[in-house]
Design goal:
Blueprint: H1 30-65, H2 77-97, H3 103-125, H4 144-154, H5 159-170, H6 172-182, H7 191-197, H8 199-225, E1 227-228, E2 231-239, E3 243-250, E4 256-262, H9 272-290, E5 300-305, E6 311-316, E7 320-322, H10 323-330, H11 335-354, E8 357-358, E9 367-372, E10 375-381, E11 388-389, H12 399-402, H13 415-419, H14 426-441, H15 451-460, H16 476-485, H17 497-510
Antiparallel strand pairs: 1-2, 2-3, 3-4, 4-6, 5-6, 7-9, 8-11, 9-10
Helix pairs in contact: 1-2, 1-3, 2-3, 3-4, 3-5, 3-6, 4-5, 4-8, 5-8, 6-7, 11-14, 11-17, 14-16
């Protein structure tokens, strides 16, 4: 995925963009370095297998070709070289697998490994029976050339480092010839002959430097692209129906954050005008959401539009679990814990509704449960950056409507959203009733095979009381509130989030529900 750049926050690319303020080349992103380190592990493991199988198969081939040939069963110098190369490859594999190793250092180590492998190949390629006639210096391609190219393509390295390592590796064939001649197993007239024979290796080395430059530059562009304004994107930490969420760090403040990038297709309409209108409304509604200060509403730090037209939201980074994941992991929750959670959600919704904002996508996946200070089961309502104002005079719909998106999630959607009727905060209370039902029973209010069937059930069918779908105790007063929230007609629901919150508080007091789990 191409990571976008923020409008007005990052200048057009110039050669200087690939430098840090100190003039040093930008370090490649840690996730790219880690991926390259994993590729190096695979490369080292494959090399170890080849260094082991090559000599073994060679001995077998000699034995079957001529059983009387002593080389088929004898241990030779080239076997010792192969054993050394095998041990070196295995050692690099296990070293790189150690999670605490710095990926950048491991990649530098891979260049040394390239040179060592080239030494082994260079000596083995020219170690043979002595010849009384000097060989004719004809250009040839050995294994070293392809190995240099594979290393440059698989493991990114700075071009200057690759230049040094590739030149040394390319020189190992001539060096291997010199060593073999000194041992009396190879004959040639001069060192110039050795260079002439292996000049293709130096061409491979030049190509490897070019490849390394391309790969490194692409990685540096990713680094630059990830520096979104005051934030720098890190690892992908989540993906949803509207986009991806990345870990981010402020470049000036010691404050981690989460950046949500909204996919372009969620804005795609019949023409560019719709996307422009959606973007304008997104800005207006995000400004309103940014003013929400409830401790139970996820804090929105920043928002904007990238050069590619993608919307982004910068939010506080949360540590915990969503209600959806919690129920899937632990099953239905005790009534006391459910009331504790619902009261906090009501506090968040109360502020938003008072500001004329309706969430319209309240669901377990958008309610986060974590720890804040010494408080456990602390609720944060997510995705308030994509809301609709119901207090406006122009009747304009929200970003979601303009983009042609499904409003809300079918399993938690209020009937009036389907009908296209006027929407106010009571639509969120219907969705919250669906959430409460899910928490108490571990089941959806209505379960069907398709989204359309689910929507029709919300429109036409009365829900089964939650107490009949769970073995847990559900106080009648709590069940009555949940069923009231699920009324088809908004007038049959609690009048406001504040009213619902007060009713939940009364339920908690009158029935002496057990305290929430910590």
């Amino acid at each position: 995925m191409r990571t976008p750049r923020i409008l007005g926050a990052v200048p057009r690319e110039t050669p200087a963009d690939l430098k840090t303020t100190g003039g040093r080349a930008r370090r490649l992103p840690d996730d790219l370095l880690l991926q390259a380190s994993k590729r190096l592990q695979i490369l080292a493991l494959i090399a170890a297998a080849l260094w082991f199988l090559g000599p073994v198969l060679g001995h077998l081939a000699l034995h079957f070709a001529d059983p009387a040939d002593p080389r088929g069963g004898s241990f030779r110098v080239i076997d010792a070289i192969a054993m050394f190369a095998f041990a070196t490859s295995i050692a690099l594999f296990f070293y790189a697998r150690t999670t605490r190793r710095d990926p950048a250092f491991v990649l530098d180590l891979s260049l040394a490994y390239l040179v060592v492998m080239a030494i082994d190949l260079g000596v083995m390629s020219h170690w043979g029976p002595a010849s009384f006639t000097p060989i004719e210096p004809r250009p040839m391609i050995t294994w070293i050339g392809p190995v240099i190219l594979m290393s440059a393509a698989i493991v990114p390295a700075e071009p200057r480092k690759m230049l040094i390592a590739a030149f040394l590796a390319a020189s190992m064939d001539p060096l291997g010839m010199v060593i073999a001649r000194a041992a009396g197993v190879y004959r040639f007239d001069s060192a110039l002959d050795a260079l002439i024979m292996h000049y293709p290796n130096y061409l491979f080395a030049g190509v490897a430097v070019v490849i390394s430059g391309v790969v490194t530059r692409l990685g540096q562009q990713v680094t630059r692209a990830r520096e979104m304004g005051s934030y720098r994107l890190g690892d992908l930490i989540g993906r949803g129906g509207m986009g991806e969420v990345y870990l981010a760090h402020h470049r000036m403040l010691a404050r981690p954050a989460a950046i949500k990038l909204i996919r372009p297709e969620t804005l795609a309409g019949a023409d560019g005008t719709q996307a422009q209108v959606a973007t304008a409304r997104f800005r207006r509604e995000a400004e309103a959401a940014a003013r929400l200060k409830s401790p139970h509403t996820v804090q929105l730090y920043d928002f904007g539009v990238t050069e590619e037209g993608r919307l982004y939201l910068v939010m506080e980074l949360l540590d915990g679990i969503t209600l959806e994941a919690l129920v899937h992991r632990d099953g239905s929750l005790p009534a006391g814990r459910v009331v504790h959670i619902l009261r906090q959600v009501c506090e968040s919704l109360e502020e938003a509704h008072d500001a004329g904002l309706v969430h319209r996508d309240i669901k377990p996946a958008n309610i986060h449960l974590g720890r804040v200070g010494r408080e456990h089961d602390f609720v944060k309502v997510l995705d308030f950056g994509l809301v609709k104002s119901f207090a406006g005079k122009n009747g304009d719909d929200s970003l979601a409507s303009v983009a042609g998106m499904a409003l809300g999630t079918p399993a938690f959607m209020a009937p009036e959203l389907v009908h296209g009727d006027a929407v106010d905060g009571r639509a969120d209370l219907y969705s919250l009733g669906c959430v409460a039902y899910f928490l108490l029973t571990g089941h959806l209010v209505f379960e069907a095979e398709t989204a359309i069937q689910t929507i029709l059930l919300h429109l036409q069918q009365e829900p089964v009381p939650p107490s009949r779908r769970t073995e847990n105790s559900v106080p009648p007063a709590l069940e009555g509130l949940v069923v009231a929230c699920l009324a088809k007609n908004p007038n049959g629901r609690p009048g406001s989030a504040a009213e619902l919150g007060e009713a939940l508080e009364a339920v908690e007091a009158s029935f002496h529900l057990p305290a929430p789990l910590h």
